[in-house]
Design goal:
The protein is of the alpha+beta class. The chain has two domains: 1-35 and 136-163; 37-135, no CATH class. Helix content is 52%, strand content 15%. The chain has helices at residues 2-22, 29-34, 36-51, 62-72, 125-133, 138-158, and strands at 55-56, 81-87, 105-112, 117-123. A four-stranded antiparallel β-sheet has the order 1-2-3-4, covered by helices on one side. A hairpin with a 4-residue loop joins strand 3 (105-112) and strand 4. The protein is rod-shaped, with a radius of gyration of 23 Å. 18% of the residues are buried.
């Protein structure tokens, strides 16, 4: 009899975990657990876009952003990237209104280990970050975990009690 109750409680707990994973957009800590590099790179990108922060080697998210930039530049860089600075026209960081059709483009000054600098207009960096670091289908796995929890709860209801 107690096993039946424990199985039901376990099913409920697993269902709740599945529900939380399904709502990952509302519970950001889920992404920190399943894809920390994705979260680090998005946080770094937001700091660059909103505050014009310069990313340097060793900063959180720098490694992830520089890997994505190398992929978008379509080449293996042999001096390594040491600094990434967002630009706007002649100097500062890119400031665009939210619904702008150009909001997916970012102008960056990239400094390499041999001290050379290049300015690149990077397009689609958010999509590239998602493709690179969010390889787990969170919705699918949340659904599976939720279904397993429901199944365990149903099984606990169907187990006959011993007299």
């Amino acid at each position: 009899m107690k096993d039946k109750h424990y199985l039901g409680i376990l099913g409920i707990i697993i269902s709740i975990i599945g529900w939380v994973v399904l709502g990952a957009n509302h519970f950001p800590f889920v992404y920190m657990v399943v894809a920390p590099q994705y979260v680090n790179s998005l946080n770094a990108l937001e700091l660059m876009e909103q505050k014009g922060q310069v990313l340097k080697k060793g900063d959180r998210g720098f490694q992830e952003i520089s890997e994505v930039i190398e992929i978008l530049m379509a080449r293996d860089l042999t001096p390594q990237i040491t600094q990434i600075r967002p630009l706007r026209g002649g100097g500062d960081f890119l400031t665009l209104p939210a619904p702008s059709k150009f909001a997916n483009r970012l102008r960056l000054e990239i400094t390499f280990s041999n001290s050379t600098k290049q300015v690149w207009d990077i397009e689609g960096i958010r999509r590239a970050i998602k493709r690179r670091y969010l390889t787990l289908d969170v919705f699918l796995w949340g659904s599976v975990v939720f279904a397993v929890g429901l199944l365990l709860s149903l099984i606990s209801l169907l187990i006959k009690e011993e007299k």
